[in-house]
Amino acid sequence: MTVESKVERGLFDEVMVPCYNPMEMVPVKGEGARVWDQQGKEYIDFAGGIAVSCLGHCHPAMVNALTEQGQKLWHLSNVMTNEPALRLAKKLTQVSFADKVFYANSGAEANEAALKLARRYAADKFGPEKSEIIAFKQGFHGRTFFTVTVGGQAAYSDGFGPKPGDVTHLPYNDIETLRAHISDRTCAIMMEPLQGEGGIIAPTDEFVQTVRELCDKHNALLIFDEVQTGNGRTGHFYAYQGLGVTPDILSTAKSLGGGFPIGAMLTTAELAEHLKIGTHGSTYGGNPLACAVAEAVVDIVSDPETLKGVAERETWFREGLNKLNEKYQMFAEVRGKGLLLGAALNDEWQGRARDVLVAAGKEGLMVLVAGTNVVRFTPSLVITKQEVEEGLSRLDKALATLSK
């Protein structure tokens, strides 16, 4: 019998591809909005695995769903269907505009399916020359080559050879530029209903309405990337429901499984017809384990009480951050919606978002950044008042060390 050597952070540098630079601490246990590292140090989690852990860590409903399903059936190919996948799909159509669901394993894969559907629909219905995809600068849609090209951050897509063509990037919230550019060659506009990675940028009502109108005028499909905004994050089950604009295709992932990998593309029956047998697929898409966990998540998150609680928690965060700002004069504004919030640093603190993240970590608080100037908060949707207060008190200590 071999004695297992202790797993330490140094092992990462030895065995992992160096495209990440993880923190020194290694988490081993989580419960609710708290996490413990190998040394037993406790952290409050305001990061939520980047808007994934919507019910916190190890929520009993999720643990039960996984345990029960894990004793029944783990995997089938798409030569068959399964009960959890069908139950979840029915629920997703009940909480959204959609009639039909395609399962994937991640946000990038859900977006890949959305983009392929848009291109296929345009080709079938209008011909091959209708292929332009319009997306927005600073947008983020995943890391596959198609989705990273559609994403509006060249740093992520440059240096891998020729990119998929006919993708145009325009400024977010700029109606005139969009109006001047869109044409009958445009097959789809893809956008986040609240830009996440790009700095927590909300669309104006006028912008989002105009995008919908221009899509209708030019027979283009509107794709909402709700990977980060979906599943209760903004206080609506999907963010589009708070904007008064309905997309044709919606992608969802991240918090859909509350930490178990699953993604889905949602669309109408009319559009779904264009992905005929064999045109797209996914080996693990619709996996019974993932769907069972996601069903438990959707049941809790879609409860009106949970959604109402998101708005309440947003208030706790805004009030707490405003108090800290009175003390340290660090933030220009707190923006975002629900529990997708960004504290934008003022002129004096430009470029120091990561410093805040590192200082918070030392005080036992996990936060995120969105670019170099925004500290991002995407905690559990059911985080307790006590956990929020404790986390903000740790942030207070962190900011104190930085402002010295």
Automatic annotation (TrEMBL):
N(2)-acetyl-L-ornithine binds at residues 143, 282. GO terms for molecular function: identical protein binding; N2-acetyl-L-ornithine:2-oxoglutarate 5-aminotransferase activity; pyridoxal phosphate binding. Its cofactor is pyridoxal 5'-phosphate. It is found in: Cytoplasm. Pyridoxal 5'-phosphate binds at residues 107-108, 140, 225-228, 283. GO terms for cellular component: cytoplasm. GO terms for biological process: L-arginine biosynthetic process. Its EC number is 2.6.1.11. It holds the Pfam family Aminotran_3. Binds 1 pyridoxal phosphate per subunit. InterPro entries: Ac/SucOrn_transaminase_bac, AcOrn/SuccOrn_fam, Aminotrans_3, Aminotrans_3_PPA_site, Class-III_PLP-dep_AT, PyrdxlP-dep_Trfase, PyrdxlP-dep_Trfase_major, PyrdxlP-dep_Trfase_small. It catalyses: N(2)-acetyl-L-ornithine + 2-oxoglutarate = N-acetyl-L-glutamate 5-semialdehyde + L-glutamate. Pathway: Amino-acid biosynthesis; L-arginine biosynthesis; N(2)-acetyl-L-ornithine from L-glutamate: step 4/4. The keyword Transferase applies. The modification N6-(pyridoxal phosphate)lysine is found at residue 254. PROSITE patterns: AA_TRANSFER_CLASS_3. May also have succinyldiaminopimelate aminotransferase activity, thus carrying out the corresponding step in lysine biosynthesis. Belongs to the class-III pyridoxal-phosphate-dependent aminotransferase family. ArgD subfamily. PANTHER family: AMINOTRANSFERASE CLASS III, SUCCINYLORNITHINE TRANSAMINASE. Homodimer. This is Acetylornithine aminotransferase. It comes from Vibrio aquimaris. The gene is aruC.
